[in-house]
Design a protein that fits this description.
This protein is of the alpha+beta class. It has one domain (2-33, 106-271, 317-423): Outer membrane efflux proteins (OEP). The chain is built from 10 helices and 4 strands; from the N terminus they run αααββααααββααα. A 4-stranded antiparallel β-sheet has the order 1-2-3-4, with no helix packed on it.
Length: 430
């Protein structure tokens, strides 16, 4: 627990450096406006009211009733056929009743279950936060990567356009052959196709961004720099430890198991007696009667014992015991599945970091090689094919870099999500 608390404070202190301003703002917008998140918040409110209802069962209940009636008799006839005395009725009745449950073996279990229900709704909110935040981060980083791929393809398209123009001039003066020009034109056509695809991908990424986060007017305003997250778990075992204490899936399964235990106690209480005490005061005013006013106090103790219900209550106990076993199995399975997910997220984080390092070295080498081959091509010591191949290698390397940078950022956030830290509390989003 001390370790987790330390991690929490370190994370909060560093979070301002983790998220770019624009990404942080995007997550804040998502946090406030996402309909799925708002729906889960209402579930928390519902659980809070359920808890208040359960607490109310411990308090006495009071009722006030009153009635006023009037009876007017026009004619009464006695047995001999003569007129009888007319006695009209005009009573006013009021009753105040207080009732308190003295013994109810299931009441405490119901209260504890309601408290668990509130905790359950809060954990489900955390789970939804994680899912929505990751979607937002994914949408944000994909939009940045798509923007970068368009810029890379546009630069390559402009480069190849100039090359075709230069090759036409060189063909006229006999420096290159027609096949060399055809190779340049083919490369240009390919670049145009790639550029169209990149633009379409950007449109899709923008639409996804607006669907998850909200309207964006200018993609170029996005902060393109997404700094690595710090701190992250230093080892797989550390990540699993954090997950066991923070992963909402595990906590939800654990709470549902505890609720099944309370359901057994509640169902067993249905076989036990209950006792209530009530105090009642009634007042009657009837000026047509010989007694003008009557007050009456009643104290009543009631014991109820459902000793036979056709086996229904006992069957309900057996049902809840089986449900407890089922919830225990689901909890064990959730813990195992979560460990697998954490291990996968950790492996992906490690590999994405290594891939990013390799691709950065590849881009650097491709840039150096392309610069040399371009100079040699311009001097005539390199063929058009050499230049085209070098340019294509550099293009692919730069696009791979843009994708790898996105993948590395997402891998880090996915690791946070797998251990249960990708929520508003840890991201300090309000």
């Amino acid at each position: 627990m001390k370790f987790l608390i330390t991690i929490f404070f370190i994370f909060v202190l560093n979070i301002s450096h983790v998220l770019s301003d624009n990404l942080y703002d995007a997550l804040k917008i998502t946090y406030k406006n996402n309909k799925e998140l708002n729906a889960e918040r209402e579930n928390v409110n519902i659980a809070e009211q359920d808890l208040k209802i359960s607490k109310g069962n411990y308090l006495p209940s009071g009722t006030i009733t009153g009635s006023k009636s009037q009876q007017d008799t026009n004619k009464l006839t006695n047995q001999s056929g003569g007129d009888a005395a007319i006695n009209d009725v005009d009573p006013l009745n009021t009753t105040i009743k207080l009732e308190q449950t003295l013994i109810d073996f299931g009441r405490n279990a119901e209260l504890k279950k309601s408290k668990l229900g509130l905790n359950l709704s809060k954990e489900k909110l955390k789970k939804t936060e994680q899912e929505i935040f990751y979607k937002a981060i994914e949408a944000y980083s994909n939009l940045i990567a798509s923007t970068e791929r368009v810029k890379i393809n546009e630069r390559n398209l402009n480069l190849l356009t100039r090359q075709v123009e230069n090759d036409k001039t060189r063909l006229e003066i006999g420096q290159i052959t027609l096949s060399d020009l055809s190779q340049s034109e083919s490369s240009l056509a390919g670049a145009e196709a790639k550029n169209i695809k990149a633009i379409n991908d950007l449109t899709t990424s923008k639409l996804n961004y607006e669907n998850v986060i909200g309207k964006i007017n200018n993609v170029d305003n996005l902060n393109k720099t997404l700094n690595p997250i710090s701190p992250l778990p230093k080892s797989l075992s550390e990540a699993i430890e954090i997950s066991n204490n923070n992963n909402p899936d595990i906590i939800i399964a654990r709470i549902e198991y505890e609720q099944s235990e309370k359901d057994i106690k509640i169902s067993k209480a249905d076989l036990a007696p209950t006792a209530t005490l009530s105090v009642e005061r009634s007042n009657t005013e009837d000026f047509s009667s010989t007694i003008d006013e009557k007050e009456q106090d009643t104290i009543k103790a009631t014991i109820t014992w459902p000793f036979f219900s056709g086996g229904k209550n006992l069957a309900n106990v057996n049902k809840n015991q089986s449900e407890k076993i089922r919830k225990r199995l689901l909890l064990d399975n959730t813990i195992k599945s979560s460990e697998t997910n954490v291990a996968s997220a950790w492996s992906n984080y490690q590999s994405s970091e290594s891939i990013l390092t390799s691709i950065r070295a590849q881009v650097n080498a491709a840039e150096i090689a392309n610069e040399g081959i371009t100079e040699e091509y311009q001097r005539g010591s390199r063929s058009t094919l050499d230049f085209i191949q070098s340019t294509a290698i550099l293009l692919d390397a730069r696009i791979s870099l843009a994708n790898s940078e996105r993948d590395f950022i997402l891998a880090q956030y996915n690791l946070l999500k797998s251990v249960g830290l990708l929520n508003s509390n840890y991201l300090n989003i309000k």
